[in-house]
Amino acid sequence: MLDYRTLTFLTVCQEMNFPRAAKKLHISQPAVSQHMQYLEEYYGVKLFERISRKLYITEVGKQMEEYAAHLLS
Questions:
Q1: What is the rounded distance in angstroms from the CA atom of residue 50 to the CA atom of residue 65?
Q2: Which residues share a beta bridge with 56?
Q3: pLDDT tens per residue, range 41-53
Q4: I need a labelling partner for 62 at 20 to 30 A (CA). Which of 8, 29, 43, 68 fits?
Q5: For the residues of 4-73, what is the DSSP string, one character each?
Q6: At what angle do helices 59-72 and 4-15 cross, to 10 degrees?
Q7: What does the pLDDT read at residue 1?
């Protein structure tokens, strides 16, 4: 399903940074965090790892990114 949370997810994947994704989408950084938390809870997976203030996409996150990008195209 492609919705605004999925678009937020794709933007985070591009930027690999929540604040930059928020700026690009013209929404708040807490809204980006809420969107990612919702998707992780909804699908029951971890999409990103946060290590030393740096964001890394998980393998499941990479698969979801490919699928969401395919839906968007």
A1: 17
A2: 49
A3: 999 999 999 999 8
A4: 29
A5: HHHHHHHHHHHHS-HHHHHHHHTS-HHHHHHHHHHHHHHHTS--EEEETTEEEE-HHHHHHHHHHHHHH-
A6: 120
A7: 58
Q: What is the largest CA-CA distance in the chain?
A: 34
The C-alpha torsion from 31 through 33 and 35 to 36, rounded to 10°, is 170
Query: HSE-up of 28 (CA within 13 Å, CB side)?
Result: 3
CB neighbours of 57 closer than 8 A, spacing ≥ 6?
Answer: 13, 16, 47, 48, 49, 65
Beta-bridge mates of residue 50: 55
Task: Read off the pTM.
Answer: 0.91
SS3 1: coil
